[in-house]
Design brief:
- The structure is a homotetramer.
- Chain A is of the alpha+beta class.
- Chain A contains 18 helices and 14 strands.
- In chain A, the strands form four sheets. A six-stranded mixed beta sheet of chain A has the order 2-1-10-11-7-6, with no helix packed on it. A four-stranded mixed beta sheet of chain A has the order 5-8-9-12. In chain A, strands 3-4 form a two-stranded antiparallel ribbon.
- In chain A, helix 9 runs antiparallel to helix 16 and helix 10 packs antiparallel against helix 14.
- The termini of chain A are far apart.
- The model of chain A has no long low-confidence stretch (mean pLDDT about 95).
- At the A-B interface, strand 10, strand 11, helix 10, helix 11 and helix 12 of A face strand 10, strand 11, helix 10, helix 11 and helix 13 of B.
Chain lengths: ~475, ~475, ~475, ~475
Amino acid sequence: MGIRTKQQYLDSLRDQHPDVYMLGEKVDNIVDHPLFASSLNHMGQTFSLAHEPEFRDLVRIHSPLIDEEINLWSHIPQDSEPYLRKSKVLRKVSAERVCILRCLEPDALTPLWAVTYDIDKKHGTQYHEHLVEFVKRAQREDLMVSASVMDTKGDRSLRPGEGDADMYVRCVRREKDGIVVRGAKANTSGSPGVNQILVVPGGALKPEEKDYAVAFAIKPDTKGVKFICRPTTRPSQPRQIEKRMSSQFSHVESIVILDDVFVPWSDVFMCGETEFAGQLVSGFACTHRAAKCSCQPGHIDFLIGVAAAMADLNGVPKAPHIKDRITDMIMAAETGYSAAIRAAVDGWHHPSGVYFPNFLAANVGKYQSCSKISDEYAALQDIAGGLSVTAPTEKDWLNPELRPLLERYLQGKQGVPTEERFRMLKMVEDLTCSEFGGWFMGLSINAAGSPQAERVDVLRLYDVERSKKMARKMAEIVEKDDKKKK
Amino acid sequence: MGIRTKQQYLDSLRDQHPDVYMLGEKVDNIVDHPLFASSLNHMGQTFSLAHEPEFRDLVRIHSPLIDEEINLWSHIPQDSEPYLRKSKVLRKVSAERVCILRCLEPDALTPLWAVTYDIDKKHGTQYHEHLVEFVKRAQREDLMVSASVMDTKGDRSLRPGEGDADMYVRCVRREKDGIVVRGAKANTSGSPGVNQILVVPGGALKPEEKDYAVAFAIKPDTKGVKFICRPTTRPSQPRQIEKRMSSQFSHVESIVILDDVFVPWSDVFMCGETEFAGQLVSGFACTHRAAKCSCQPGHIDFLIGVAAAMADLNGVPKAPHIKDRITDMIMAAETGYSAAIRAAVDGWHHPSGVYFPNFLAANVGKYQSCSKISDEYAALQDIAGGLSVTAPTEKDWLNPELRPLLERYLQGKQGVPTEERFRMLKMVEDLTCSEFGGWFMGLSINAAGSPQAERVDVLRLYDVERSKKMARKMAEIVEKDDKKKK
Amino acid sequence: MGIRTKQQYLDSLRDQHPDVYMLGEKVDNIVDHPLFASSLNHMGQTFSLAHEPEFRDLVRIHSPLIDEEINLWSHIPQDSEPYLRKSKVLRKVSAERVCILRCLEPDALTPLWAVTYDIDKKHGTQYHEHLVEFVKRAQREDLMVSASVMDTKGDRSLRPGEGDADMYVRCVRREKDGIVVRGAKANTSGSPGVNQILVVPGGALKPEEKDYAVAFAIKPDTKGVKFICRPTTRPSQPRQIEKRMSSQFSHVESIVILDDVFVPWSDVFMCGETEFAGQLVSGFACTHRAAKCSCQPGHIDFLIGVAAAMADLNGVPKAPHIKDRITDMIMAAETGYSAAIRAAVDGWHHPSGVYFPNFLAANVGKYQSCSKISDEYAALQDIAGGLSVTAPTEKDWLNPELRPLLERYLQGKQGVPTEERFRMLKMVEDLTCSEFGGWFMGLSINAAGSPQAERVDVLRLYDVERSKKMARKMAEIVEKDDKKKK
Amino acid sequence: MGIRTKQQYLDSLRDQHPDVYMLGEKVDNIVDHPLFASSLNHMGQTFSLAHEPEFRDLVRIHSPLIDEEINLWSHIPQDSEPYLRKSKVLRKVSAERVCILRCLEPDALTPLWAVTYDIDKKHGTQYHEHLVEFVKRAQREDLMVSASVMDTKGDRSLRPGEGDADMYVRCVRREKDGIVVRGAKANTSGSPGVNQILVVPGGALKPEEKDYAVAFAIKPDTKGVKFICRPTTRPSQPRQIEKRMSSQFSHVESIVILDDVFVPWSDVFMCGETEFAGQLVSGFACTHRAAKCSCQPGHIDFLIGVAAAMADLNGVPKAPHIKDRITDMIMAAETGYSAAIRAAVDGWHHPSGVYFPNFLAANVGKYQSCSKISDEYAALQDIAGGLSVTAPTEKDWLNPELRPLLERYLQGKQGVPTEERFRMLKMVEDLTCSEFGGWFMGLSINAAGSPQAERVDVLRLYDVERSKKMARKMAEIVEKDDKKKK
């Protein structure tokens, strides 16, 4: 079958009939639904890229597993190469098309590869074999695979199983041919539109939380699976001047509800091995954060462009405070990207053969580049001026009586058509004074883990003990072990 | 006539027939237009407050000018008292009702009072007398007066008169009975709905920019005045759960175009005296920034409430990083408010008798409390979690089939109805993932001057020379003057 | 006796013979010891000020208690007036003379006044009477009184009495005529040089920690009291050009050890009433933080002067990034000062009649103005350039062979003597590259409580519940109480 | 001759007799001078490392130029490898030994290599040949080479040649065998102790500034060269407990004065080719900033150790605000290091064959990791508590009478000897409350260029035009070129 086209991907969705609700109504056909359009458009890109001259060679890679050229997004990395390619692609694509979503696929498959290997080694299970078959199929058929990680949790002060037992996805029954799972996952962008969903635990688990140590794959239209969706940001078609970005690029978000869903053993990758849940979720989170170190800089590249274009159009490209704000944006972008590159080249091999990025660098880079998104939006408004939130609408602009007045009084840099300034003001509005801006901010802050989760990981992953030892040595504090030796 | 009711104010608008456009169409009746509703509601509050037990005594004040009890908003301050009252009112009202707008009235009249006094003294003109009459009328009739300050500017690297002559409002002709003015003012929130508009220069002027040194009052329906408006944030009616704040509290924004408008001399307060333009605009900006030191903390009070309620409903009110973010919000609010109080008590008297707030404190406080709004929105999303931008809509919640699923899987703190959490998530969404949030951010950043304008004023208002002198003295650098003495 | 002169104060110290150690040696006479000089000089200022024309009227105040004019520093405030005066004096004096230390006196006496009143009311004790007598004496004799608050604590994870019982000062024995106390207090700047030391608990206490709820006054040369001191920063004499500030202005720091010290009942102000310890220490900390809101801005005023003078001397006073850093310093200074003024006018009366500053404002202001000291030192070095830490010493400057070379190659702004630049570089060095700078940074960070202590207080003092209520109301969450009513 | 030992290096200095002044006196023998000790110790390390098992393989590298194994520090990089090695070595060595200084050697030789190549190509000169011979000699003889870059400048608002002509190093005379140079360079750490000094322009030059476009090598004891030095931080020997770091690790700083120094043509690498000055200085600055991206993280590693050890010893290793501050330090360290790694692997080849690091990444990383040093020192004091600046001296500790009292009252975590805490408090003091701390802060801020210089480079190096193009395309602004095509 091999690498698919966007059309082939969309066609494959027509054969799937997931149970989807949006705005309180059942959606029978997501492919043609206007409020799914930009989401599928995003995801479809991962197929288009493989046919675009600029990206073709970057996203096609040889898989030793099936000895075929495959799409980068279903590749299992054995070295830094696929990470470096991913970084380049994500930065470029995110700048102009916001998000491709499919980075979830390698970011979830890679730690699953390692963890299933480790579980089998310890417990004599066959999860790894299941996964290898799954990956082979994904590679051969160029499947769009997403990951559902975040449990709905309920009262966050409670552990899984405390309080309502279904607040975390769990195995309610083991049967001969498979398992029955229940619960729900939140924040699962675009998942009605994928070919396979990987469901994995959302956190580390204690031995007594066995039922919650469950990882598996399902098709979106598996019986018992229901999606309640938040639509893409509206309007779903760009107006003439307004909403040019938000109408084309955002995701359907969804809660996936698993109402006693049966999963055959062949699609189960963990069931009860609590001691591996932490490794899996942390492997996923950190690998995914490494990816965000590249895509967030892409978005910032775009914001820098808007800021600089706006400053030009206002006639003040050299104002020191504007240059300062743009410089800060560049810092955020390049900080993230440097982390991505270091994460790629300074990573580590797992005994199973897969190669992981440097987790510490990934966490630091993600935190540094994503946590400033709100500042960046504020900078855009600061640079654009009050008109970014007070200018009349395009309906006024298109009114022939009002147009000459607006042409005149909204003019900016001399000799440049007012329409350029009006368009750029509306671009700032679309980014910062819109549902889209808030949604993207949410994505920057909470996707791949909250800022606090990253801080916790940073402290955990850094070797504080080694540093303490140096400090104590310099202070000439004699260690007990040294004393004994004497 | 005396202090009016909200109804009387709205009725007065029915007698005005301004030339208003919105969404490309002419608006004949703003009072009943749904997209003007929240704007007039805001402004109407300034009348309601005078009849509400909680505020009545605060907003009624004796005017020595007409020896009557008047509405605080048309009072000309002679001491710190009205500023202290304004601070209390603004903080409280802004917390629950976002913005009253009418603070512009005293903030513009006070510096006009001083400046007209100074001009007359120097030039033997009669502007001050004009203004006194204007104020008396505003006080007697409890007029809603707004200020239009920001010129459309065009290419910001050009001075008034360079390039298109009409980019700054100017006097195009002096006639026997009055003057004819032309140009446009931007960012004039709510101005079609006021009784009088004060038009003042937007910046300091050079001697050769005489035509631009023009200040005057006009009624919104004066011939030649046209408003092109941006509507209030939509929807204009709250839904059942969503959009509870944004639908009730935002302003119509407008560009006011003055197409050769005639203004009788009695309503002219400056015409040609360029050397006073800087004093006027700076007096207005700084006084208005002092006001923002109180209203922004009010809004932050509300955000703190949302953050803390959200943390409760998620079951994690004591997470250190959440307490940190809330503490930072409190810092921003109290920093602004302390500046407001100090500005009030540490102000200065102008020879004309009016009392100004401390400008340095006002600038610092405004900058410190307003510039963090984007961080605060990010904090709300961080605390609320991803669901603030991914949760299903109220239409799903209201669908009886989906409701039980959402009741279950969106539950938060044990024992608390899920609806409370859903409502609060939607409040976070309404604040941070909406046109409203972007608009309010814009207001925080650019209203009363950009952050950079405040920084420039801070450096200008602080006595750096005095500090340098101390440093040089401590370093035992002998000053030339000292040397001579020896 | 009345208001003393600095000489009278110093003479009074000659009559005291405290048990003092410094640099491992016994110090018999602190008054003439070079390493005590700057400390006593600081403290002596509080007496000089009362005779200096600029300050005389500010620091002399009428005491209703003894119906005499007294020194401001032993006044018990009944309204905002003394706080406003203190603010003015502290800002001015700290700018040129760093620290007066004696603000501790009113900041400790005021909460003791309130707390002894409350204890007596509840327990029928006579502490308040003791304190009134103590204050009368302090006022009449213009005594220099300091406060010892910070216990040595030991393992900070343990409560008083857990682990070594003496890690917190405690009453080891109650006798007929008084009590016997043991323990040590740390961070007690300058205390060998005062007339009386107030010892109060360092934190809130639990009922079972009765022995630690002890407050009392002692003279420094009371039997059993020993001071182990850290000297003032060296050298203790300014060189010709270097060390002009550090050699004149810093404090002796000390640990005060109480080795079974007997205190007569008349000097005991609390003994066993654990429930009041928190109120006392918080009253002291918050009142003292209000004071720091004024003195830290004074120091920043000085730093601004050094920064601006340095920029002048380098020939780049208008570089935008330098103006930015100076603007940030001004922001920090004015933020603190606004908090001080608001704290003063927006305070509260205790039933005993004393007036306290607004604690919330005080905490916010202290945190905001003090926590940036390290940034400010970095800014000085940034503005001064590398020479602030690499320039040759004054010994090179004073060498006649090297002088012409340095005159030439260290020159800055044209037409200005190189010596001015050399002197200012050495001032930057003295502030930022010296024991003094580190000591002052420590003072800014940890005096009056650590930054974290202030953050905790900010969250505690703000009415979060009121904000939550507003948020819930806006979200239309029906409260239980409301439901019942319906 | 090959790779030298530290002893061989020190011996080579004995054969050099530079004209050195310190503390106003002539220094005849720097090798045995106590105030040169730590500086030479630092520099000597670059030789020791080549013989230490941990570093030996990292710092020995094959030079294709002379086909021998050489010391990494005189290698001319042809690919990323030497940069990656340098990063590892610098981070590790800086953590425990602060600074090796010799990174200046490759950081100056590499851009000189490229620039001389370019000049020769354009002008048919022979500078590159001169440099190749110089490098061969440096490699064969393992010479310690430093760079002198920063001109003394004088009034920074003037260009070279405006005002005093000697404020920038210049060629005053071209002779048959060489050139005569005059001027001075500042901030030249340790330069009396090197074997060769490279002198290069400190900034870009205009065509009319020909005399200032001069680059050359000199031995420190060349006739006419004089060093006026600032000593290493004192004391020069560690005390028993105090000053353990500052006494061992700091540099002599110096101003190098060139009083009509003759340089033979063979050691001249640029003379008059103004158009290449900018390329040279920027190549040096950016390459050196890449190096600082590795050594600053090393120092932060050490600070993290002190912070964490201090928190342990105080008994509060898990306090959230302490973990926060340590996490921030890790962020700064890893941000720098990621930039170093990316700079290495994402660099570029110059036509001459040398390989440069990624300049954008280097600037961002240097700025981000170095600009927080002051915060980090403040964090240490915050974590350590007030005792870090108020604790008694080691002389008290060593006094047998006072020792038991201090043992008792300075105790921290239960069960741990008080001496450990005392030692660590003194380490914090040595780092943050000392001349050393200020000196290191100065190094972090100003070495390799000021923060503002880095910001300017960041904006210059980033492709803003590309970003603008994307923004304009998304906004559907039709470009002139596109219009023409249509």
